[in-house]
């Protein structure tokens, strides 16, 4: 049965209708790029007209970045910050996980420690920075202490609630098969609460970054935070944006890395939570 | 026979008695723990140089001094006014822009790169620049608080709006609701649990922002008291401020949690759909 001309006509019309007119909703990627480039272009054009003491512009920032990295000064301060950051964070992870496990497993430990944990967790840690600088001086120990305190509570609280949600059935099965307390910890409780621990680590990474920048800005001696204060006092706005952008990238990279680890080590998160 | 029964019951009773352990009185353990800590601090703290470490009774004395002189009240009122203003602005703008971004995919695509970039930047790092732009007064503190609190509210509102089930909106359309009616009678109420969760996260960050801004501007507010007494090595007064900030944090977070429970009672059922 060949199509009648009328039917062919109708099909052609349908095809025409299917060839939709240009709609913005179908080109969201384009919208995104136009928005980003538009903003950078506007900033460049507008920023050149503003007093450079107050606002810089992208090409000046790029030039400043090349200059700072070339001079080696930026790299050195960044390494300094990162070193302190990772030492403090490692301490926070170890202490947070150990205390969290103890508090989750033993009620005595929970009751002894929880008043302090809740009190310190509620206190904005930035408020402790002046005291910590008083105790530890302006150098690395004070900054490590700030990073530690910023990071330890999210890890501790998450580990604690993770251990609490481990089903007692799992622990009993372990016992029934004659597992000792150490085995129960390492083979049952740790793996079962890992998703929670990783969620705590993700929070801690961001908070510790805020902690170290604030401490460095306040002490204003070494590190990226000190650079921020130095460049802003010198009204070198173009240089000021270099550490800001670096810190933003660092924040994204660290969070992504933890999310990746989370997916690798704790992929059973969703089913586990249903228990 | 009866005596034997009694005996058994007594035995059982005894056993039940002995089964009661210290764990049934967690608050006793907590109180003991805190008390031991305070006593140890008092004894140790009195021996250490008072410039570095203080002790509980000195902190209490300092608290009395700061309260009776009216200084604490004045600075707290100052801090809270700024907090209320900056936080209020971030709630209004965050929810407003969040609604727009949640409803319009174009707005979302255009704004998302900028929002993500700003959210990823530790806002603390921007404080020096903001101080250059807005000076050291009230404005810069409100702006810092705004920046700290804005993004969690915005991001939560947008994802709450996106999570509103399409069928609810279609029912609204079927009953011939206008676009504004759908926005305010269907979408907004359905997104309230997400918005409230964002507000709860934001209030904690707003307090951090307030302290940071006040630490650096160091003119008024609780954070400025910290800087001032830190420079004067009056450790006892610093502890008073830290404790006030801790209590303030707990009270505000609890208040938002209570509000969350009141305003978002259907949270769990909504999430299941």
Mind sketching the topology for me?
The complex is a heterodimer of chains A (275) and B (273).
Chain A: H1 5-18, H2 28-49, H3 58-71, H4 73-105, H5 107-122, H6 129-136, H7 140-165, H8 168-176, H9 181-219, H10 224-233, H11 237-265, H12 269-274
Helix pairs in contact in A: 3-11, 4-5, 4-7, 4-9, 6-7, 7-9, 8-9, 9-10, 9-11, 10-11
Chain B: H1 2-19, H2 26-47, H3 56-68, H4 71-103, H5 105-120, H6 127-134, H7 138-162, H8 166-174, H9 179-217, H10 222-231, H11 235-263, H12 267-272
Helix pairs in contact in B: 3-11, 4-5, 4-7, 4-9, 6-7, 7-9, 8-9, 9-10, 9-11, 10-11
Describe what this molecule looks like in 3D.
The complex is a heterodimer of chains A (275) and B (273). Chain A is mainly alpha-helical and 275 residues long. Helix content of chain A is 82%, strand content 0%. Chain A has 12 helices and no strands. Chain A has helices at residues 5-18, 28-49, 58-71, 73-105, 107-122, 129-136, 140-165, 168-176, 181-219, 224-233, 237-265, 269-274. Chain A starts with a helix and ends with a helix. The model of chain A is unreliable at 270-275 (pLDDT under 50). Mean pLDDT of chain B is 85; it is low at 268-273. In chain B, helix 4 (71-103) runs antiparallel to helix 9 (179-217). Chain B has a single domain (56-272), classed as MetI-like (MetI-like fold, Orthogonal Bundle). Chain B contains 12 helices and no strands. Chain B has helices spanning 2-19, 26-47, 56-68, 71-103, 105-120, 127-134, 138-162, 166-174, 179-217, 222-231, 235-263, 267-272. With 273 residues, chain B is mostly helical. Helix content of chain B is 84%, strand content 0%. The interface between A and B is large, with 61 and 57 residues.
User: Which band does the percent of strand residues of chain B land in?
Assistant: under 5%
Report low-confidence residues of chain B grouped into runs of 5 or more: 268-273
Helix content of chain A: over 70%
User: Domains counted in the coordinates of chain B: how many?
Assistant: 1
């Amino acid at each position: 049965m060949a199509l009648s001309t009328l039917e062919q006509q109708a099909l052609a019309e349908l095809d025409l209708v299917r060839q939709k007119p240009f709609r913005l909703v179908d080109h969201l990627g384009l919208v995104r790029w136009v928005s980003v480039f538009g903003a950078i272009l506007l900033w460049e054009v507008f920023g050149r007209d503003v007093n450079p003491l107050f606002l810089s512009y992208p090409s000046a920032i790029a030039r400043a970045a090349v200059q700072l990295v070339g001079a080696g000064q930026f790299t050195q301060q960044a390494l300094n910050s990162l070193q302190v950051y990772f030492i403090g964070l490692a301490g926070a992870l170890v202490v947070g996980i150990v205390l969290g496990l103890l508090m989750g497993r033993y009620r005595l430990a929970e009751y002894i420690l929880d008043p302090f944990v809740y009190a310190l967790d509620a206190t904005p840690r930035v408020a402790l920075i002046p005291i910590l600088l008083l105790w530890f001086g302006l150098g690395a120990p004070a900054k490590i202490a700030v990073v530690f305190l910023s990071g330890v509570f999210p890890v501790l609280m998450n580990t604690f609630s993770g251990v609490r949600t481990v089903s007692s059935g799992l622990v009993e099965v372990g016992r029934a098969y004659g597992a000792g307390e150490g085995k129960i910890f390492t083979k049952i409780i740790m793996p079962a609460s890992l998703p929670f621990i990783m969620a705590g680590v993700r929070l801690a990474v961001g908070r510790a970054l805020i902690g170290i920048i604030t401490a460095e800005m306040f002490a204003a001696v070494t590190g990226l935070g000190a650079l921020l204060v130095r460049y802003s006092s010198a009204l070198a706005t173009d240089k000021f944006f270099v550490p800001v952008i670096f810190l933003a990238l660092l924040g994204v990279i660290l969070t992504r890395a933890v999310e990746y680890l989370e997916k690798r080590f704790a992929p059973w998160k969703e089913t586990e939570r249903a228990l | 026979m009866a005596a034997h029964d009694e005996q058994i019951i007594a035995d059982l009773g005894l056993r039940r008695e002995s089964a009661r352990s210290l764990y049934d009185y967690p608050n006793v353990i907590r109180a003991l723990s805190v008390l031991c800590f305070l006593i140890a601090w008092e004894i140790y703290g009195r021996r250490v140089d008072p410039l570095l470490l203080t002790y509980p009774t000195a902190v209490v004395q300092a608290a009395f001094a700061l309260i009776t002189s009216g200084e604490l009240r004045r600075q707290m009122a100052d801090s809270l006014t700024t907090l209320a203003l900056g936080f209020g602005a971030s709630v209004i703008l965050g929810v407003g822009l969040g609604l727009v971004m949640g409803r319009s995919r174009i707005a979302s695509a255009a704004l998302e790169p900028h929002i993500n970039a700003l959210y990823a930047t530790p806002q603390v790092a921007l404080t020096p620049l903001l101080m250059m732009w807005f000076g050291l007064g009230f404005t810069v503190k409100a702006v810092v608080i705004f920046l700290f609190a804005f993004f969690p509210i915005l991001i939560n509102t947008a994802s709450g709006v996106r999570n509103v089930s399409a069928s609810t909106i279609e029912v609204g359309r079927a009953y011939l609701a206008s676009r504004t009616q759908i926005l305010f009678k269907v979408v907004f109420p359905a997104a309230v649990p997400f918005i409230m969760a964002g507000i709860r996260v934001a209030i904690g960050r707003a307090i951090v922002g307030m302290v940071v801004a006040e630490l650096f501007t160091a003119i008024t507010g609780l954070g400025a008291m910290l800087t001032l007494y830190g420079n004067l090595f009056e450790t006892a007064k610093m502890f008073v401020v830290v404790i006030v900030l801790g209590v303030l944090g707990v009270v505000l977070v609890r208040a938002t949690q209570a509000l969350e429970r009141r305003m978002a009672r259907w949270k769990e059922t909504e999430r299941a759909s």
